[in-house]
Amino acid sequence: MSKWEQEFKMEQKRVHQVTSKIDKHIDQLEEQAGVVKSDMSHIRKNFWDDVRINFDNPDEAAETYASIIQQAKLLSERERSHRHAEHQLDILKRLKQSPYFGRIDFLEDGEDEAECIYLGIGSFYDKENEEFLIYDWRAPISSLYYDYSLGRAEYNAPDSTITGTMELKRQFIIRDAKIKSMFDTGITIGDELLQEVLGNPSSSQMKSIVATIQKEQNQIIRNEKSRLLIVQGAAGSGKTSAALQRVAYLLYRYRDTLSADDIVLFSPNPLFNSYISTVLPELGEENMQQATFQEFLQSHLSESFDLEDPFTQMEHVLAAEGGADDDIRLKGIRYKAGLDFMEVIEQYLKYLGQKGLLFKNIKFRGEVIISQQQIANYFYKLDTSLPIPNRMKLVSERLLKELKNLAVKERSKPWVKEEIQFLDKEEYAHFYQLLRNKNQYTEDTFDDFEREEKLLSAYVVNEHFKKLRKQVKNLKFIDIQAIYRQLFSDPELAGTFVAKNKLPENWPEISRQTVSRLDNKILTYEDATPFLYLKERIEGFKTNTSVRHVFIDEAQDYSPFQFEFIKRLFPFSKMTVLGDMNQAIYAHAENTCLSMLSSLYGDEAADTIILKRSYRSTRPIVEFTRHLIEGGKDIIPFNRAGNKPVLNQAVNEEDLHLKLAGLIRDLKAQEQRTIAVICKTYKECQKAVKALQNEVPVRLIDKDTAAFETGILVIPSYLAKGVEFDAVIIYNASDEQYGKESERQLFYTACTRAMHELHLFFVGQPSRFISEVPENLYIQNKA
Ligand SMILES: Nc1ncnc2c1ncn2[C@@H]1O[C@H](COP(=O)(O)OP(=O)(O)OP(=O)(O)O)[C@@H](O)[C@H]1O
């Protein structure tokens, strides 16, 4: 038996020993959990029997109260320990399948013997022998595995830095307690293992990468000091993966104080949400809060407007024919995303502090009872040094007082008497009871009648005024829509409070378009954030102080304006921002620059990590795609073999669909699980589906699709963001479709979704971006 075989045998023996201990522990825990569960149901069932209820006097009532509290505490303690046991069991069951993925032998300076550390997704402590049989991959000592090759190494323990020598680094693939593969590694974390992992077919859900995290990714995952961590990385370099393992790391590192609810991840679309939703549970952690920025806008704005989503904006821009109106819209999109426009809004706010705020009349029964002018007078009489939201609060208090007086006056109006007569029985009985309880009735029935009528009038008016009071408390008397509109309705206005160079050349036309849309109750995607910002600055910013970490994935798609907004929204939060400027597909992207973000919290608080190595696609695919963009030569492909991309010419659309269907059948036969036909727009997707559906079973993905399934998908380019497929077919890579410079990144993003196979079709001329790729890097099939 060779030395390696002996080693293998020894390791397999250890796996058996560890898994049988895990098994034993699972049995014990299940028994304990069972006891706790029956305790819980006993407490629930007998809750009221075990509580002594007596409200005869205050002392007894207090005792009753104390006994209820005690019983509730007992129940919640049992529930907590049940949850804990369930969580432990969940991890143990996962460990049983695959107890660990790595081993390092570390000889600490000053010690005689190296310690063997085995790393898994959770730790496992053997109480009998008082040793850790498995260390959590997030434990301080585990960082050695990710950060060092053999030789001198160190890690940060809670109180000090521990130095020593790494004598061995080994990797395993263990399934069902059997070692499938074992590698001893040198410099990086096992290329062999990574080869094996990356060569697997795609799935409808993202997978965790803890066994093969690379050194530079580990820096992202374990970063604790930066207020703002900016990650710029090539397509497929593991940005999203690093973000998710970072969430798991933070939840472990700060487990006593941080919960999944304190972390928010902004993602590009609902499909992506579902794609990544299994990673954290796979690691035994709960998912963080996930949202798209659009969902956030929707929750704040949809009541008052027909709110456009970014995908509709995208379709609009991509389908634009280049007419004057399209051009103005595009200019507006770019301008409104930028900090110049934010400055305009800031200055507008200053202006509004002095004059120009617009209010709504407060009406009651169709009559104005407090006019907008009156409200404006109240506002502008207040000390101008106070911020607008504080003054609004004072105005609201004043209006509430005024409403109180107006309500008293209203009581004697004839409608009130009429309404009293129509009070329904229940309301009347309820009211009668109320008066009795208050001992309002006397012996004198005549008096009672008057008193009753007086109180009933107050009651009726009060009921009607409730809604008004609520509106005033919620500052609904401010006419935010009109205030935003005013900024555009007189294009000269902005020029009175900002320097002319802060306004774009086409400001009057942009303004005209904006007003016309607002008048139709349409709030475009480019207006939504500025509108909400203005609203929040006038009403008082509703911040979220409980969130401690915000992650923004696909950050290149956010405008500077949106970043400022998010920063203000989560004032106590650290931010991790992950993006790739080469995948900036929105029209406003011209304005975004990830490095510019570092000034968001001051440069000292920010750190930037750059990921250059791309893991998703095979080497031939990366070698092709990196020529599509400027600076692409810096992208380093991971060395995984595969076929060269194929460029197929079709004579006409009929030929295109014939060839496409043939290719899809071939790819299916090669067992490619997920084949995506990527189209530029949704409209093009519909066309492709119509032509293909009788030939092959295709599924159309749209912006409302909530989850992925494997199979043949037809998907618009912008929805394919962040996800990946075994084989990608670009439906129409002609110059007509991808010929404008503004479409370069969209094209690049679509091509970089491919893991194993990339095929491009065109009719007419191929995209000019393809002609920038050396011909030896792809195969051409002429028509
Ligand atoms: N260290 C790693 N070990 C194993 N797989 C990895 C590793 N890093 C990245 N991958 C894999 O590479 C693929 C791309 O990763 P991910 O989606 O996180 O990249 P990304 O930078 O967010 O990509 P994009 O910007 O193109 O959306 C995924 O399949 C992921 O599992």
Question: How does this structure look, described?
Answer:
The chain is α/β, with parallel strands linked by helices and 783 residues long. Helices cover 46% and strands 17% of the residues. It is built from 26 helices and 26 strands. Strands 1, 2, 3, 4, 5, 6 and 7 form a seven-stranded mixed β-sheet that branches. Strands 22-23-21-24-25-20-26 form a seven-stranded parallel β-sheet. A six-stranded parallel β-sheet has the order 10-9-15-16-8-17. A hairpin with a 4-residue loop joins strand 5 (151-156) and strand 6. Helix 1 runs antiparallel to helix 2, helix 12 (339-354) runs parallel beside helix 21 and helix 14 packs antiparallel against helix 17 (445-473). The longest helix has 43 residues, at 3-45. The protein is globular, with a radius of gyration of 33 Å. The protein starts with a helix and ends with a strand. The model has no long low-confidence stretch (mean pLDDT 89). Bound molecules: adenosine-5'-triphosphate. Adenosine-5'-triphosphate is lined by residues 194, 197-198, 207, 209, 212-214, 217, 233, 235-241, 580, 583, 615-616, 722, 724, 752.
